[in-house]
Design goal:
By secondary structure, this protein is mainly beta. It has one helix at about 1-25; strands at about 30, 35-40, 45-50, 55-60, 65-70, 90, 95-105, 110-120, 125-135, 140-150, 155-165, 170-180. The strands form 4 sheets. A 4-stranded antiparallel β-sheet has the order 6-7-8-11, with no helix packed on it. Strands 1-4-5 form a 3-stranded antiparallel β-sheet, with no helix packed on it. It is elongated.
C-alpha cells in the first residue's frame, strides 16, 4: 500500500515538473527568408535586418505578426543611451530659435537639453515653451515645459528638463512657444 502511494506521489510530482518545464520552454525559430526586417511594432519602422537562419525566440504574437527576441553581441563602444544631437536650428514663432537638442534616457526618465535664442525683438521677464515627444507612429508619448526667466532679445540661454518615458520609444519631438511676459 505504501509503495502504491509513493508511486502516485512520484507520478504527480513528475507530471507537475514536466508541465512546468513545458511552460518555461523557449519557442525558438529561425528566419527562413533571405532577410527579414525587425520592426519596432507591427507595420512600424524597421530597426534592423535579420539574415536567413538567425535564431529568434517568440515572446508574443498578434493575428499577422510575431514578437521576437534576438540575442547577440555588439561592441560596447557602439552603443549609447543618448540620441544623436540635433544640429539643425529650428525657428519657433514668434522668433525664437532652438538648437543643440540632446535627449538622454536613464531609468524611465528622459532628459532633454539644448539652447534657445530670443530673436523676437522683445525682452521677456518669463517665457514658457512646451516640448512634446512622439513615437514612430506620431502619437505623443511625453510632455514637459521649459521656463526661462529674463530672456532678453538676441540672448541665448540653455535649458534642461526631464520627463517620464523611455528614450527607445522616442522618434521625434517638437518645441512650441506657449507664452511670455
Amino acid at each position: 500500500m505504501i509503495n502504491i502511494k509513493k508511486k502516485i506521489i512520484f507520478s504527480i510530482i513528475l507530471f507537475i515538473l514536466l508541465l512546468t518545464l513545458t511552460a518555461w520552454a523557449k519557442q525558438l525559430f529561425f528566419i527562413k527568408v533571405n532577410q527579414e526586417k525587425l520592426r519596432i511594432e507591427p507595420n512600424g519602422r524597421a530597426i534592423a535586418t535579420l539574415p536567413k537562419n538567425t535564431q529568434v525566440e517568440i515572446i508574443g504574437s498578434t493575428d499577422k505578426w510575431i514578437k521576437v527576441k534576438v540575442e547577440g553581441w555588439i561592441s560596447k563602444e557602439s552603443i549609447s543611451n543618448d540620441l544623436p544631437d540635433d544640429k539643425d536650428e529650428k525657428i519657433i514663432s514668434p522668433g525664437f530659435v532652438y538648437r543643440a537638442i540632446k535627449l538622454r534616457g536613464n531609468n524611465g526618465r528622459i532628459n532633454i537639453s539644448g539652447k534657445l535664442t530670443n530673436q523676437t525683438g522683445k525682452d521677456y521677464q518669463l517665457t514658457t515653451f512646451i516640448i512634446r515627444l512622439y513615437n514612430n507612429s506620431g502619437s505623443p508619448i511625453g510632455t514637459s515645459y521649459i521656463h526661462i526667466n529674463n530672456f532678453a532679445n538676441n540672448q541665448t540661454k540653455p535649458f534642461n528638463v526631464t520627463t517620464a518615458g523611455y528614450l527607445s520609444q522616442v522618434d521625434d519631438y517638437s518645441i512650441e512657444f506657449e507664452g511670455g511676459i
